[in-house]
């Protein structure tokens, strides 16, 4: 998905997965800009892709597997993004200060302080209050949740490698998906009162690390299937399958917006609804056997995919600042306003992402020379 996962496939360059990163990022960006409701789809894509890339890159390597070594492994894969996370946290402080100015109570000061502390150490998604997950730079919750997957990955890869056949991978995918379904469906029987009930449901199925690690595990299993896949399928059949993926996303969004069916209820709409489409997108684009994946694997899309890790952490605050300094005028078209905000904030996001990448690379290069 982004630089929150390892660099894509050094053993075999899968540029098509950079296109998947870009698709996931743009899905979330347009959602935050008010142009779509594809945010949950993009999140599912990112989780599945992270699992896929990790297993593809590390399945043949020896990874030391102890709790302390796993922390070192985790730090290795967030150290490039953590300084940017702190910078975005600082950039979000003016909004928190403005909120406290309008709500000057001791309880609010304590609450904001605790949120800041949890966000700094990326543990906000472990707090079973949805507001904590989306505090300050809201999108940082993804990095916080991914940290748990990074820590668990050495254990996960060992389990998969013991039985890495196609049959075993399919069985494990079915088991993980069934467990996720049971957890989501089981929330129906809590019968708590509002307003906490709906927020708790979304916390469990959208941001909770214990639940979303299932998406990452399924991504690992898809990579296992990919490595064992020796089928040769006609390009036109692959193209039809790729088109069907985007059609499935379209209908999933219809279900998401309607919110009046079993699978479109709050228990499933934030994760499980989009999971099949996300899995199909990652797997089919990894194979890159159809004309759609080849068309989208171009320099522009790959460029967006390459910097999507940095851009992901930047984009929502960029949108908020653009909306702050360029508010919607009276009588103005909401749709046109959303497009203007999207274009401006997208340009700002890309420029800041490139700037951060340049500075970070220069600093690390200088340190490596000194070492």
What does this entry look like structurally?
The protein is 73% helix and 0% strand. It has 16 helices and no strands. The longest helix is centred in the C-terminal third of the chain and has 37 residues, at 334-370. It is globular, with a radius of gyration of 21 Å.
What labels would you give this structure?
about 375 residues; mainly alpha
User: What class would the helix/strand composition place it in?
Assistant: mainly alpha
Q: Approximately how much beta-strand content do the residues carry?
A: under 5%
What is the count of β-strands? 0
Q: Give start-end ranges of low-pLDDT stretches.
A: 8-12
* Residue-averaged pLDDT: 89
Estimate the global geometry from the Cα principal axes.
globular
Radius of gyration: 21 Å
Biggest β-sheet description: none
Q: State the end-to-end distance.
A: 31 Å
Number of domains: 1
Helix coverage percent of residues?
over 70%
**Element order: H for helix, E for strand:** HHHHHHHHHHHHHHHH
Number of helices: 16
Any chance you could write out the topology, listing elements then pairs?
Elements: H1 15-32, H2 39-58, H3 67-76, H4 82-102, H5 106-120, H6 130-133, H7 141-162, H8 166-186, H9 196-207, H10 209-228, H11 235-258, H12 275-287, H13 291-296, H14 299-306, H15 308-325, H16 334-370
Helix pairs in contact: 1-2, 1-12, 1-14, 1-15, 2-7, 2-10, 2-12, 3-7, 4-5, 4-15, 7-10, 8-10, 9-10, 10-12, 11-12, 15-16
Short structural summary:
The protein is mainly α.
């Amino acid at each position: 998905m982004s630089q929150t996962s390892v660099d894509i496939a050094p053993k075999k360059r899968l540029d098509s997965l950079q296109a998947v990163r870009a698709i996931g990022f743009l899905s979330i960006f347009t959602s935050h800009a008010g142009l779509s409701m594809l945010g949950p789809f993009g999140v599912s894509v990112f989780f599945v892709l992270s699992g896929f890339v990790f297993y593809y890159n590390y399945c043949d390597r020896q990874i030391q597997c102890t709790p302390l070594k796993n922390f070192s492994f985790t730090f290795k894969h967030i150290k490039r993004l953590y300084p940017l996370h702190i910078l975005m946290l600082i950039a979000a402080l003016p909004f928190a200060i403005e909120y406290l100015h309008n709500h000057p109570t001791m309880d609010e000061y304590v609450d904001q302080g605790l949120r800041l502390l949890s966000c700094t150490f990326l543990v906000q998604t472990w707090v079973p209050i949805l507001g904590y997950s989306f505090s300050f730079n809201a999108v940082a919750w993804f990095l916080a949740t991914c940290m748990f997957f990074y820590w668990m990955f050495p254990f996960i890869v060992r389990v998969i490698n013991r039985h890495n056949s196609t049959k075993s991978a399919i069985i494990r995918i079915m088991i993980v998906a069934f467990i996720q379904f049971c957890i989501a469906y089981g929330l129906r029987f809590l019968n708590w009162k509002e307003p906490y009930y709906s927020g708790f449901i979304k916390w469990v199925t959208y941001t909770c690390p214990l639940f979303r690690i299932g998406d990452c595990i399924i991504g690992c299993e898809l990579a296992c299937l990919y490595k064992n896949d020796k089928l040769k399928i006609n390009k036109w059949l692959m193209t039809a399958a790729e088109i069907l993926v985007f059609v499935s996303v379209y209908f999933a969004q219809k279900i998401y917006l309607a919110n009046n069916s079993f699978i479109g209820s709050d228990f499933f709409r934030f994760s499980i609804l989009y999971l099949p489409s996300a899995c199909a997108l990652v797997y089919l684009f990894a194979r890159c056997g159809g004309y759609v994946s080849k068309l989208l694997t171009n320099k522009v899309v790959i460029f967006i995919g390459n910097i999507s890790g940095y851009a992901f952490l930047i984009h929502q605050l960029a949108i908020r600042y653009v909306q702050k300094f360029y508010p919607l005028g009276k009588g103005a078209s909401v749709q046109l306003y959303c497009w203007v905000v999207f274009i401006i904030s997208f340009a700002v996001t890309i420029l800041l992402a490139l700037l951060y990448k340049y500075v970070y690379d220069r600093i690390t290069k200088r340190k490596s020379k000194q070492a």
